[in-house]
Amino acid sequence: MDFAGYDPAPAAGRNRGIVSAKIVIAGGFGVGKTTLVGAISEITPLTTEALMTSAGIGIDDPSKVPGKETTTVAMDFGRITMAQDLILYLFGTPGQTRFWFMWDEIIRGAVGAAVLVDTRRIADAFAALDYFENRNLPYVVALNHFDGAPQYELDEVREALAISPDVPLVMIDARRRESVKRVLVTVVEHAMMRLQSEQGRGYPAPVG
Amino acid sequence: MDQRREDPRGALVRPYAVTRGRTEARMEIAIEAVLTASPTSVVESRFAGHDKHRIATVCEGRAQSLAEIAAYTRMPLGVTRVLVADMVAEGLLTLHTAAPAEGFDERMEILGRVLSGLRRL
């Protein structure tokens, strides 16, 4: 059900007063997702949990958790109140990429995503990149700075990640608010450009 | 609250007991969709049960997303969604729309607002 369009008779308790948007923060375990969220969120990052029955796991092996029929998937998130009627949420994806059902929930309706990459463990980002490409979610790649990690040219990293030239690739220090802010701005700008180019392809060019 | 510990089936079955076993919410609510409760509905929610009253209290005076409600009440997301959807239908909570997913102009407008909001930070 989608109420985004014309809504002639709003259901009881439904209101257009406050709009909320979300940006997804993805990347491998320990790459700094929660650090990034915490650097800019107005609240200490919160954790919400979802329960999943083992039937929904697919590749999970129930024999490893005898007698346990549900698994808990946790995700961290933060909040930025931009105006009285506009709130931006930042959702970190669960560490284990096998919890795709949770990713689906997180990306539905999202503005876009930032994929955090640690240059020492580039392959950790592949699952997220594949996933966002499959779901056609606009994303940017952010190389998180770790002290002592090898420094690469952005072009080298772009090649190693096999991302297309139109995907923005930026350096970030996930601990620093200004740096995080710049990445989020890049995500939104990229989403706007994508939307604009999709609009251009989907409709005839305006006459005149 | 203490019923949780007394339930012999443990914490895995208990969560959906508060929804009387229902796992499907009566309406779709995005994790980022925010909800508000008026002071009147916070009072009224006392008669709707402990869990709903806790939810209404969380949403009093400050818009809270479904994800925040789940985090603050320490209930799983799915359970929270069932209860929140009931409360919207009962008029105890006001559901605000998440950002529109369709319509070029509508989406561009929200993106533009988010962008300038970020730049102002």
UniProtKB/TrEMBL annotation, chain A:
Pfam families for the chain: ATP_bind_1
UniProt feature coiled coil, ranges: none
InterPro entries referenced in this protein's UniProt entry, alphabetically: Gliding_Motility_GTPase (IPR052705), Gpn (IPR004130), P-loop_NTPase (IPR027417)
SUPFAM superfamilies referenced in this protein's UniProt entry, alphabetically: P-loop containing nucleoside triphosphate hydrolases
CDD domains for this protein: Ras_like_GTPase
Keyword Hydrolase: yes
Family according to the record: Belongs to the GPN-loop GTPase family.
Protein name, UniProt field: Signal recognition particle receptor subunit beta, a GTPase
UniProt keyword annotation of Hydrolase present: yes
Organism annotation: Micromonospora mirobrigensis
GO function term, MF aspect, one: hydrolase activity
Keyword terms of this UniProt record: GTP-binding, Hydrolase, Nucleotide-binding, Receptor
TrEMBL record, chain B:
InterPro entries: DUF742 (IPR007995)
Xref: Pfam families: DUF742
Name the record gives this protein: DUF742 domain-containing protein
Source species: Micromonospora mirobrigensis
